[in-house]
Each structure stands twice: as C-alpha cells, then as structure tokens.
Design a protein that fits this description.
Layout (H helix, E strand, L loop, with lengths): L16 E3 L10 E3 L27 H17 L4 H11 L6 H10 L8 H16 L10 E2 L2 E2 L2 H10 L24 H17 L5 H16 L3 H19 L4 H16 L3 H19 L4 H17 L17 H18 L5 H16 L3 H18 L5 H16 L3 H19 L4 H16 L3 H6 L1
Antiparallel strand pairs: 1-2, 3-4
Helix pairs in contact: 1-2, 3-6, 6-7, 7-8, 8-9, 9-10, 9-11, 10-11, 11-12, 11-13, 12-13, 13-14, 14-15, 15-16, 16-17
InterPro entries: Clr5_dom (IPR025676), NLR-like (IPR053137), TPR-like_helical_dom_sf (IPR011990)
Organism: Cryomyces minteri
Protein name: Clr5 domain-containing protein
C-alpha cells in the first residue's frame, strides 16, 4: 500500500500519486504525495556542489556591439550557440553565459526552434487550406525567417495524434478539478513564462524560481521523473545560492526533490532529503507547523519503503520489515496535531490518516487499516466528490486491503470503478490509469482468471 504525503495548501496545487513496486503477486495500494513540497541542502544527503560563478548581469545595450557578429555566426553560418560563444570570447573581451545567449537570441527573434503554439497555428492553417480551400495553392510557412519543412509539420502532427483528414481546431483546455493532472498546454505555457523570465531577470529571481517549481510539478504529473529531477536540482541549487540551506523555500525544494527520487525508487536518497527538510523546518518553524508536519509525513513514508533486505544481492526481492513502528509513531503524532490545528476534514489531515492506514496494513493490522480507509473515502466523497483523484486513490487503497483480506470480489468491484473513472478523467494511457489496470490484473490473477489478467 502506498502512503500519502501531505502538504500545506498554500504551496503545491496538486497531489502526487505514490505507488509501491509490487514484490509479489499481491496487489498494491497507492496514495498521493502531497500538495506542497520543497527543500534545503543541509549536512545530510549528497555533499554540496561547488557553486558556479554566476554570470554577470548584462543589459540589452551591452549586447548591441556584438549582435551583428552573433547573427552572422549563428543564423547565416548555422554554428551552434556554444561555438558562437567561444568565437565571440576569442575575438573580444565580451563574456556571457550560454543561457544568456539563448535568451538573447530568443529576444532578438532569431530562435530557430518552433514553439508549440506556432506549430499549432501552422497546422491549423495548412489543414484548412488542404481540406476546405483545396482549390487554392499549397501554403508554405516561415517562422522568424526560416521555412518550416512539410516533413517537420507531418512529424509534429503524428506526435500529437492529429489526423490528416480532419480540420485542426485546437481549443482551450477543458476545466479540470484542481487536483487533476496537468496537460501538455500547461507545460507549454510554463516553459514560455520561464523563457520570458530568464530574459528579464536572473536565474535566482523569485518569480523564476516559482515557475521552475510549478514546471517541475507538471513534469512529475506527466510521469517524466528524470526531466523533473533535473529541473528540481536546478531549483535547489538556486535556492542554495540565494538563501543558504536553512530556509523554508529551500526545505520545500528539498521535499520536492525527495518526492521525485522516491518515484524513481531511490528511497535512501529520498529519506536523507526529507530528513534534512524535516529537521530544518522543525528548527525554523517549530514541531507543529504544517511544513514541519509535511516533511515528517514524507520521512515516515520512506521508513515504510526501505525495509530490511533478506540478502543484499537479491535486489528484486525485498522483505518489507521496515521501521514501521517509527513510522506509526510519527503518523499518529501528525494526525493528532493536524486535527487540532487544521481540522478533521482538512486534506492534509486525511492524507495523514491514509498514511497511518498504510502502516497498519504493512503490520498486518488489516481491520484497523480498513476502518481508516473507509473514513477517508467517505470524507473525500463529501468534500471533494466521487471522481476527484484523491477520492479514487482512497478507493484503490481500500480495494488493496480487501485483496489482502481475501475479499477478492469486493476488491475487484472497487478496482473496476477506479479504472473506468480514471480512463474517463485522465485518459487511457495516463500512468495512474495504467497503475489501476495493473492492480485489477493482480485481482484477476488471484481469482484464477489468467486470460483477463493477461489482457490487462
């Protein structure tokens, strides 16, 4: 069963789904990581990297004497930007970072890359000409002086599953609940905002860091954990440069990095980061602050995940005898405090109750786990609605507990409900949908329905 990490509402606008890797035929549970996370670089975890020297801030007029030469090298001679940078430095005393070159090139309108919204407009016009205005000649398109090759347009359409025989009319993204996963449009918008901010401000400007954080969330929601990790490490480094290692924003960044490492199975590294965030938050904010409790929740989950290995070499077979008592004590403490500080129905309180249910399940205390899970489901249905993603996570957890109790028919009914709802809300290929299908396959397998399990 996967516990759920919590957060404070003021930070992250969504929750992560954590799922354990199954080590046997048993179905597994899932719970969401939280709505807010971030982190500091303290004594624990990897040694601090040597700080890079920050490139000097350059005003627009500082670039003007070199604009013609940069344009000649990059646009006419088609040299890569790093080579352009090296050439300019050899020929003059002008110094700038490669990221500053990229943003300046974009500001001058010389960027060769076609942005998603630009390609969307190209496809819309081409499809209209092809299917509605076929009596007219074929269109050619140029973006910033560069012709867009038809093969490039075809590849983009194929990648985005746009049929050739249908007029393309992109529409604004439909409204989704706050906890729903981000779509491609969110990523495109945030990347555009980030590009603009990098041109206008330094890398460690507060608004730049805010967008970095939100973009990292989007990448995590898309299941692109490696890309998210790179983005978050950049965020952590910037926070370290601005405020040092003992800072609330740094703690949030560290928790976010710990979360994405957790998703990739790096439980020991995730534990070190969450412990650093927890200890720093407790020192800065006190033991009962929501941020401290959030980090404490994450730390409890990493305890559950690590267990003790039966044999060091058996990397694929883990005996889950983790520090469950420590996790339970932390979770009970968090629940009691959150009920008092936030209220019984606050999302973070419910996340903590889910985490305790997960620990009970790991300890074999299935009846106690079931009672807590039913409580969370009923509250989330009332507060969030039947199809909210957090409600579905709770239903999936209860289904897993039913499976462990041998109540396979009841487990199957709940898992089918989760699969169908996620297909409708998230799509057939979303990681959460695929996870719920995998859980249903385990139940089919346990009932001897091997054909159905294989199909899933």
């Amino acid at each position: 069963m996967v516990p759920q990490l919590a957060s404070t509402q003021s930070y992250m606008p969504h929750s992560f789904n954590l799922s354990l890797t199954p080590y046997s035929n048993q179905p597994h549970n899932e719970e969401s990581l939280s709505d807010s996370q971030r982190i500091p670089a303290t004594a624990m975890g990897p040694p601090a990297k040597r700080r890079k020297r920050k490139a000097p801030t350059l005003r627009a007029d500082a670039w003007e004497p070199y604009k013609a030469r940069i344009t000649e090298l990059h646009v006419r001679q088609k040299l890569p930007l790093r080579q352009v940078k090296d050439t300019i430095e050899r020929e003059s005393s002008f110094q700038a970072g490669i990221r500053q070159y990229r943003t300046r090139i974009s500001q001058w309108g010389l960027d060769k890359n076609i942005k998603p919204h630009e390609m969307s407009a190209v496809v819309r016009k081409r499809q209209r000409r092809k299917l509605i205005e076929s009596q007219k000649g074929e269109l050619t398109f140029t973006v910033r002086g560069n012709e867009v090759e038809p093969q490039k347009i075809d590849r983009w359409m194929k990648r985005n599953e746009i049929p050739e025989n249908v007029v393309y009319a992109p529409s604004p993204a439909a409204y989704t609940p706050s906890a729903c996963r981000y779509r491609q449009t969110d990523e495109d918008r945030l990347r555009q905002e980030l590009s603009t901010l990098e041109i206008r401000y330094e890398d460690d400007h507060p608004e730049t860091l805010r967008i970095l954080y939100k973009l990292s969330e989007v990448l995590i929601d898309q299941g692109r954990y490696s890309s998210a990790e790179k983005m978050i490490r950049r965020l952590v480094e910037a926070r370290q440069n601005v405020n040092g290692s003992d800072d609330n924003d740094m703690n949030e960044a560290l928790d976010l990095l710990g979360g994405v490492l957790y998703f990739q199975g790096s439980y020991a590294k995730a534990e070190r980061l969450h412990r650093r965030a927890f200890e720093s938050s407790r020192r800065i904010l006190g033991s009962e602050h929501p941020n401290t409790l959030r980090s404490m929740d994450y730390l409890a989950i990493t305890y559950c995940e690590q267990g003790r290995l039966k044999e060091a070499e058996e990397l694929w077979v883990q005996v889950k005898q983790g520090r469950l008592k420590e996790a339970e004590e932390l979770e009970v403490q968090v629940i009691e405090t959150r009920k008092r500080v936030l209220g019984h129905e606050h999302p973070d309180t419910l996340i903590s109750i889910s985490n305790l249910a997960s620990t009970y399940s790991e300890q074999g205390r299935l009846k106690e786990a079931e009672e807590l899970e039913v409580q969370v489901i009923e509250t989330r249905k009332r507060v969030l609605g039947d199809e909210h993603l957090d409600t579905l996570i709770s239903i999936s957890n209860l289904a897993s507990t039913y499976s462990n109790q041998g109540r396979l028919k009841e487990a199957e009914a709940l898992k089918v409900q989760v699969v169908e709802t996620r297909k409708r809300v998230l799509g057939h290929e979303h990681p959460d949908t695929l996870l719920s299908m995998s859980n249903l396959a385990f139940t089919d397998y346990d009932q001897g329905r091997l054909k159905e399990a294989e199909e899933l």
